[in-house]
């Protein structure tokens, strides 16, 4: 009988919350619209996958056909776009202000020295501050030097009467077969969006959850909520239920967009990733409840939640890996559901190792569900007596 | 005239005092100010203090087991980027370690590696990189490519000599072109220098925006908007409000700004190659820009908490728009224009170029000029925003009744 009553009360809480949504659109704007903007941003901003036309400066002090050829071939690579400068000084200024990623100086007598085998030296200056552009330009320049050198060597060997069939082995005795596991095309966009978007979702969930529970205190409606729900458990259950539905809808759409629509690489099953995002969502909701329970003052709790969730993006370790961070911060990273989602994704999305690979992370995400239990009494107290600073 | 200026300053000072008081008595805003403004720069610095990932653990499967492969494995192990932690008998074993993330990459020498090499063909070995972080891939690639290139040159000299070149000819043609590479501003190719610099300036901008919005939102909730001007002035005095309020934030954020731009980098032995006066000038103008930027946009915040719900997600977006990871030249056109709305778009690159690459105000003239233009534009928009808000508050009844009249008229015409 009391079970029936609970179900009815929870349903009432859900209805009450829906009325609040209707009156104050901020809940839906703050979740659906914000996630929509983020999705559009990360997918369109990084849509090229690999940057192209990275500006590389050439200071051609030789002006021969060989040096011109070097420059035009560099320009023809997909990655590089050549900008010519007359003096090193001028190019250096642009390197310093980040307009160009690197400078390549072709020395005077470049062509003559190659022909007479006097081994001219090309100088590169890379602006390594602009990390991606700088390292790509560096790679592009190295490739170009090797290609140019290879062409010269080919001529020399041909003159010595080496058969074309033997040429490859002579010019390139060792080669590397590169396998990029989990992102074969080295798509930078897929790499970042894969974790940034769930990261933004975690942020949205924590904030909205805190806000939804915190406004009850702020506007003194918490007793009304308790009256509707009967007790704190039902109140939390009702809110949890509705927000889980909302965020799961967003989360599933996100996974479908990433792995179906955009076709980002996923070695495992989409269904398992849906499970992962679902578990991350309920874990993040629990964190939100935990924060407002610890600090039952809306303004403080929202500030704390913001500080917490902003840090989460770095502490997931998908850019700078966790093991490169100092030990105390590694510990801190365990506080974030996103971290476990990332570990889950590595197992499922990169290695396709299935349940055996990720069950630990799924279990930890479920453990997050215990968090609200610790603060339920405290939150109930605050809801009844409203004895904290209201605003 | 002099008297007028005196009154303006006096009024501005009143507003300034009031704003400071409001700020200091607001617990939620102070948490953000102290934690995000003072602690986060240290925390982020600490987090990224090892900007260079070293000794990525990898497994080796050496089916060739010849002197060449063994030598190359030793050389790869000796690079800074890679550390070989496991020698596996087959790929199956290596793959298990890979999957359990005991290693972040595999190097595989096929059984015919030595034979192919001996027969003067192209011998191939394979690397398998974990792409869950691009830094693993970069390390594995750099470590093994470095070894491969130096090996290639050795082997080539031998092979060229076999093809009829003299020892000197062979050596010369293998090193047809020499190169020297310099990475003057970031010798270790640290991933974090730009990221941290951008984060520093982003912290100034975002914390200011959030704090100002919190205060403004609270005021609006309580129906005492800061924009309210004394009635006797009849809508004049906008500049007083803007300067008075702005001054309060400017003062506080100059402290944070100088702390973040000068003290924190020194604490963490960050490269500081810029001229001190140049950096101070840049921070000053950047903070002024942020003040008017925040004042303009915080007009949209009507309730205290809504700023975090609606705009917290902008912080990472702004970070990307500084160009710290994806190169600015590859920005899609729309986002490039969008980024012009943000002070960090100009401030962060200018700061990093000056502080780390040692550029001066003249080299950075373009960015600094844009920063100035942006400041002026946002000053004007901040004034307009205050004026409009004040107008709306004072004429609320009129506007509301006009709206209803207009709606009625509209309905009548529809009928």
Provide an overview of this structure.
The complex is a heterodimer of chains A (391) and B (415). With 391 residues, chain A is of the alpha/beta class. Chain A folds into two domains: 2-47 and 185-385, no CATH class; 54-171, 3-Layer(aba) Sandwich (abc type-2 transporter like fold), CATH 3.40.1710.10. Chain A has helices at 2-23, 26-45, 65-76, 88-96, 110-115, 131-159, 164-171, 188-218, 222-229, 232-261, 270-294, 298-315, 327-333, 337-350, 354-367, 371-385; strands spanning 54-60, 80-85, 102-106, 121-126, 174-181. In chain A, strands 2-1-3-4 form a four-stranded mixed beta sheet, with helices on both faces. In chain A, helix 2 (26-45) runs antiparallel to helix 8, helix 8 runs antiparallel to helix 10 (232-261) and helix 8 (188-218) runs antiparallel to helix 12. Chain A is elongated and about 95 Å long. Chain B has 415 residues and is α/β, with parallel strands linked by helices. Chain B folds into two domains: 2-49 and 190-405, no CATH class; 56-174, abc type-2 transporter like fold, CATH 3.40.1710. Chain B has helices at residues 2-24, 27-47, 67-78, 91-99, 113-118, 134-162, 167-174, 192-221, 238-267, 276-297, 306-311, 314-321, 333-339, 343-355, 365-394, 396-414; strands at residues 56-62, 82-88, 105-109, 123-130, 178-182. In chain B, helix 3 (67-78) links the parallel strand 1 (56-62) and strand 2. The longest helix of chain B is centred in the middle third of the chain and has 30 residues, at 192-221. The chains are: A alpha/beta (391), B alpha/beta (415). Chains A and B meet through helix 2, helix 4, strand 4, helix 6 and helix 7 of A and helix 2, strand 4, helix 6, helix 7 and strand 5 of B.
């Amino acid at each position: 009988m009391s079970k029936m009553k609970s179900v009815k009360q929870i349903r009432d809480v859900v209805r009450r919350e829906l009325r609040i949504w209707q009156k104050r659109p901020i809940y839906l704007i703050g979740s659906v619209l914000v996630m929509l903007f983020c999705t559009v941003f990360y997918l369109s901003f990084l849509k090229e996958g690999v940057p192209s036309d990275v500006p590389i400066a050439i200071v051609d002090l030789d002006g021969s056909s060989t040096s011109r050829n070097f420059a035009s071939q560099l320009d023809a690579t997909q990655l590089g776009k050549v900008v010519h400068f007359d003096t090193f000084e001028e190019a250096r200024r642009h390197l310093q202000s980040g307009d160009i990623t690197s400078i390549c100086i072709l020395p005077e007598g470049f062509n003559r020295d190659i022909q007479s085998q006097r081994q001219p030296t090309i100088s590169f200056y890379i602006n390594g501050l602009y990390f991606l552009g700088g390292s790509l330009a560096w790679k592009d320049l190295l490739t170009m030097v090797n290609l140019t050198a290879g062409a010269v060597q080919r001529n020399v060997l041909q003159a010595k009467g080496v058969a074309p069939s033997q040429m490859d082995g002579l010019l390139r005795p060792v080669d590397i077969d590169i396998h990029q596991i989990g992102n074969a095309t080295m798509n930078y966009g897929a790499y970042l969006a894969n974790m940034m978007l769930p990261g933004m979702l975690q942020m949205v969930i924590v904030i909205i959850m805190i806000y939804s529970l915190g406004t009850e205190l702020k506007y003194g409606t918490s007793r009304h909520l308790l009256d509707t729900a009967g007790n704190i458990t039902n109140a939390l259950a009702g809110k949890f239920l509705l927000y889980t539905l909302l965020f799961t809808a967003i989360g599933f759409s996100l996974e479908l967009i990433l792995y179906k629509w955009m076709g980002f690489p996923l070695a495992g099953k989409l269904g398992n990733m849906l499970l992962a995002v679902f578990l991350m969502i309920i874990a993040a909701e629990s964190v939100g409840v935990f924060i407002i329970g610890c600090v039952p003052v809306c303004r403080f709790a929202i500030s704390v939640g913001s500080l917490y969730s902003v840090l989460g993006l770095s502490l997931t370790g998908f850019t700078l890996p966790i093991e490169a961070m100092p030990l105390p911060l590694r510990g801190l990273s365990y506080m974030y559901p996103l971290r476990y989602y990332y570990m889950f994704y590595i197992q499922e999305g990169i290695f396709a190792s299935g349940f055996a690979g990720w069950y630990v992370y799924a279990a930890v995400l479920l453990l997050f569900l215990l968090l609200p239990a610790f603060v339920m009494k405290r939150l109930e107290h605050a809801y009844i007596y409203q004895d904290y600073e209201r605003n | 005239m002099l008297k007028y200026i005196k009154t303006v300053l006096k009024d501005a000072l009143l507003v300034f005092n009031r704003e400071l008081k409001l700020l200091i008595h607001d617990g939620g805003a102070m948490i953000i100010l102290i934690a995000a403004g003072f602690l986060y720069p240290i925390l982020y610095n600490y987090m990224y203090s090892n900007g260079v990932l070293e000794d990525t653990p990898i497994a080796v499967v050496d089916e060739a087991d010849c002197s060449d492969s063994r030598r190359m494995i030793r050389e790869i192990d000796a690079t800074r980027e890679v550390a070989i932690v496991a020698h596996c008998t087959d790929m199956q074993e290596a793959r298990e370690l890979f999957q359990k993330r005991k290693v972040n990459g595999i190097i595989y020498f096929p059984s015919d590696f030595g034979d192919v090499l001996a027969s003067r063909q192209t011998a191939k070995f394979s690397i398998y990189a974990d792409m869950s972080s691009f830094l693993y891939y970069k390390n594995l690639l750099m470590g093994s490519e470095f070894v491969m290139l130096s090996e290639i040159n050795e082997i080539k000299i031998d092979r060229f000599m076999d093809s009829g070149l003299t020892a000197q000819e062979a050596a010369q043609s293998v090193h047809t072109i020499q190169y020297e590479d310099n990475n003057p501003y970031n010798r270790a190719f640290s991933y974090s220098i730009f990221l941290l610099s951008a984060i520093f300036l982003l912290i100034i901008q975002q914390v200011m925006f959030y704090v100002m919005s919190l205060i403004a939102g609270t005021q609006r909730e309580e129906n005492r908007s800061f924009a309210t001007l004394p009635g006797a002035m009849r809508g004049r005095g906008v500049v007083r409000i803007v300067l008075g309020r702005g001054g309060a934030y400017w003062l506080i954020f100059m402290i944070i700004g100088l702390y973040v731009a000068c003290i924190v980098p020194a604490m963490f032995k960050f490269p500081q190659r810029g001229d001190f006066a140049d950096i101070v000038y840049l921070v000053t103008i950047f903070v002024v820009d942020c003040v008017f930027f925040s004042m303009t946009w915080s007009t949209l915040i009507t309730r205290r908490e809504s700023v975090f719900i609606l705009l917290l997600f902008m912080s990472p977006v702004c970070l990307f728009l500084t160009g710290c990871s994806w190169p600015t030249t590859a920005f899609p056109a729309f986002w490039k224009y969008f980024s012009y709305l943000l002070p960090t778009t100009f401030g962060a690159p200018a700061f990093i170029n000056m502080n780390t690459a040692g550029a001066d105000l003249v080299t950075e003239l373009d960015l600094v000029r844009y920063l100035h233009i942006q400041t002026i534009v946002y000053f004007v928009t901040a004034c307009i925003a205050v004026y409009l808000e004040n107008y709306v508050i004072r004429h609320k009844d009129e506007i509301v009744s006009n709206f209803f009249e207009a709606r009625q008229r509209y309905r009548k015409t529809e009928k």
